[in-house]
Amino acid sequence: MLTRLIVYFAYVLKKSRRYQCTKLFFYNLLENPNSRLKSYFDIFMICLVMLSVFLLIYEVDNKLGESELLFEHGVISLFIVEYLLRGWVYSDNHKIILEHYEKAKYLNVPFPLGKVAGIIIGKKIKYVFSPLALIDLLAILPSYRPLRILRVFLIFRLFKLFRYFNSIKLFANVIASRRFELATLGISLGFLVFVATTGIYLFEKPANGSQVKNLFDAFYWAIVTVATVGYGDITPQTTGGRIVAMALILIGLGILSFLVSIIVAAFNEEMDELRESSTYAELHRFDRFIIICGFGRVGQHIAAQLKKDRLHFVIIDTKEANVLKAKRQGYLVIHEDASKNGVIQNAGINKGATAVICTTGDDVINVYITLTSRHLNPDVRIISRANNQDNVKKLYQAGASNVIQPFEIAGMVVAEYIGQPVAFEAILGIIREESHIIMETLCVHPGSFVEGMNVGGIDFEQRKLMLLGIISANPAHQKHKNSYPIKNQHFYFNPEPHFVLRDGDLLVVIGREYAIDYFREQIEKSRLKNGRKR
Amino acid sequence: MKRIAVFGYSVMSLEAMSRLNQEQYSIIFIGKDDAEAALVAEKGFDTKVIDFRNDDALRSIGIGADVDILFCFYPRDFDNVFLTISARALDKDITIVAIVDDPESAEKLLAAGANKIIDPYEICGRKTHEMLTKPDITNILDNTVFGRYDLNMAQIEIPKGSCLENTKTSDLKLNEKHNLILIGVVDRELGDQLHFAIREKEHCLDAGDVLVVMGPAREIKAFKKEVEQC
Questions:
Q1: Any idea what the CATH number is for the domain that residue B102 is in?
Q2: pLDDT at A245
């Protein structure tokens, strides 16, 4: 009966959207490193911890008033709630129950309630004994009056900051990554201190006027000396003691510099990786972004243009110099080889990347990156650079949506400049939006006033717009003349007045930005209005 | 017919030469050596091998005389700067188009007397950006105006005594009569700026004004003929 009730309850939790949403909310608030909510919560908690520690310091000399006590209680309650919530978010009990229940049902054996309870309790105990949860607990416990004796643990409130400061966590991780070296060093240091303590005790204790009264004094002196602090409150009086001191100072210096070098080297090694992971974290905050592979001359121009448009992008390059250049400009950079699946996957080709631009100077690499990207995401837009005409076909075969040939385009620009300078500058000006006149496409939305209208019926002149043509995939238009096939669509140049606009057609217009925006707005509004009527 | 001298062998020089109408331009390619010249000659262009550092050699191909346009397409910037300086000294009116490898050299080339600087990397970067932000527009232009279809942009100057003189731009009705779209007009009285034909201002055409039109090549040709003959 109890088993059935528990399993029923687990199913209810699994199905309840409200429960899932609440849990997700608290996960985002407390644990999800990519969540913005967590950053705000962390800042709030840092302030609270600092305030409560200031209150503790104030309490040393002064008696707390009622409001301060109230604040203290408030803070402690919040700490308790946070501690419990973290415990709740730590594991999903209903999932464990259901997993075992379904397994038992499949194998046709009784549901092992005791074992499942053990697993659940085991998970929660694991949470309780995790270092950060222990710190949390120790920061709360001393506030309980009967445990006043534990007041010294109030200092753990400061350690609570570990949770909220990423840089402290980072430091701890770096130290942890050098466990072996640090342990070896710790053992040799311990041995050295032990030898020095024994030596100084043996030489100094029996001497007249000795400052070393007991073994603790000897140990204290050894630590002060090995750390090269040397307060001078205890100094060796005998020749033997002085020899021990000299040896200890020299060896201590060596060990200290060894310690520093281990930590510095660890930081150096980890730093690149850490920087990269912070790049990934920042990237995952964007819903849409572009991946630029190669930060050579072309890549730099593209990045500058995208920055101007305030579009998000990330650069992947293997060359140190290019990475440095990109960093100096403040761009997000990944110092890796974009042709590796893992790199481009981590960069988010399936998590928000709208386009991949392959713009390295080597066609072989461009083909490879194009192929990798297309394999990983069949829908992403890939624009690739071909330095050699022969490779254009290969790039399309590899899956590029568009291929750009720098030298061919430049050659074309020169020819156009010589042949039709005015016309060419005009079209460039329009594309680059240098003047206020721009070329845009406007979509004929279903239900908008333009749908089903004749081109002649829309007074483009009145709207101060110029209709260049219509892009459409609708087969109904194919009887019209002046049609130019473009990919899966047709471009109908200079459409006749009786050309009827259909749902999904794109009007290509030239005009001032605000005239185009106004027309677009009218189309949108009419669509919404008609949609409501329907 | 204008005469163009192209210096420097590259994909870009071949592309530029093949795009220029050989009926309108007489193109001569200047190679560094016979092998280079032979490669270009295979494509049907006139070639010559000279040392560009020698002013007499430059004169011998017509710089300072009948060459109107010079393309400096050497891969190294200092070669282009040297050629630009030499050519400008020989002919004050020659149009010099030079490519630049390092963006810092652009100023030097301009100071040396080049009229137009082409940075292939910049153009490629811009093009990629256009493809990203305006894929529809770029696609149309690439496939039509810049591409293989016969839809072109052209500029047509109104000659003296043409029947279009004193015509209002709104009365031209090119889209109805000629299947052309009038993109804009350069009114020489008002300067070199192009005024787009979006009915903001009425223009009365004079001799010397330039019409920028878009349309199928044969229609453009027919309209050009009509303007010249009427």
A1: 3.40.50.720
A2: 92
- Mean pLDDT value of segment A321-327: 91
Of B20, B97, B212, nearest to A422 by CB-CB distance is: B212
**Model pLDDT for residues A31-72, shown as the tens digit of each residue:** 887 777 888 888 888 888 888 878 878 877 888 788 888 888
pTM (2 d.p.): 0.65
Q: Which residues contact B55 (CB under 8 A, 6 or more apart)?
A: B86, B89, B90
Judged by CB atoms closer than 8 Å, whether chains meet at B125 and A402 is answered as no
> Are A33 and A281 in contact, with CB atoms under 8 Å apart?
yes
- Do B101 and B158 lie in one domain? The reply is no
Residues B110 and B172 reside in one and the same domain: no
Residues B23 and B100 in one domain: yes
Please state the domain count of chain B: 2
Residues of A in contact with B132 (CB under 8 A): 290, 302, 306, 311, 355, 357, 381, 383
Segment A243-253, tens digit of pLDDT: 999 999 999 89
Indicate which of A307, A357, A493 best probes the interface with B, i.e. most B CBs within 10 Å of its own CB.
Answer: A493
Contacts of A198 (CB under 8 A, 6+ apart): A218
Q: What is the pLDDT of residue A338?
A: 87
The answer to whether A491 and A484 are in contact (CB under 8 A) is: yes
3-state secondary structure of A126: helix
Nearest residue on chain A to B197, judged by CA atoms? Answer: A466
Ranking A252-256, A381-385, A408-412 by mean pLDDT, the lowest is A408-412
Residue A83: helix, strand or coil by DSSP?
A: helix
Residues B78 and B169 in one domain: no
Q: Which helix (H) or strand (E) segment is B12 a member of?
A: helix B11-19
Domain presence at residue B35 = yes
Same structural domain for residues B171 and B224?
Answer: yes
What letter would DSSP give residue A531?
A: H
> Based on the domain organization, do B16 and B97 belong to the same domain?
yes
**CB-based contact A426 B149, cutoff 8 Å:** no
Subunit contact A404:B128, Cβ cutoff 8 A: yes
A469 touches chain B (CB under 8 A): yes
Domains and CATH numbers, chain A: 2-165 (no CATH), 179-271 (1.10.287.70), 288-408 (3.40.50.720), 436-533 (3.30.70.1450)
pLDDT-derived band at A436 (thresholds 50, 70, 90) equals confident
Tokens read off for A501: 């606009």
**Distance spanning both ends of chain A, measured CA to CA:** 54
Give first-to-last CA distance, chain B, whole Å: 23
Q: Does B33 map to a domain?
A: yes
Residue B166 sits in the same domain as residue B116: no
At A221, the pLDDT band (50, 70, 90 cuts) reads: very high
Query: Does residue B87 share a domain with residue B8?
Result: yes
Residues 29-48 of A with CB under 8 A from B: none
Nearest CB to B126: which of A405, A425, A432?
Answer: A432
* Domain assignment present for B140: no
* Among candidate residues B72, B106, B123, the one where a domain is terminated: B123
Q: A-B interface: how many C-beta pairs under 8 angstroms?
A: 210
Residue A496's closest chain B neighbor by CA? B176
| Domain-terminating residue out of B123, B138, B172 | B123
Residues of chain A contacting residue B196, judged by C-beta atoms under 8 Å apart: 426, 437, 466, 510-511
Nearest Cβ partner of B153 from A420, A466, A484? Answer: A420
Q: Which long-range contacts (CB under 8 A, 24 or more apart) does A227-234 make?
A: A227/A252, A227/A256, A228/A252, A228/A253, A228/A256
Residue span of the structural domain in which B51 resides:
2-123
Q: What is the pLDDT of residues B25-36, one digit of tens each?
A: 888 999 888 888
Question: How big is chain A, counted in residues?
Answer: 534
CATH number at residue B165: 3.30.70.1450
| Residue whose entry in the numeric block shows the structure tokens 């032979």 | B38
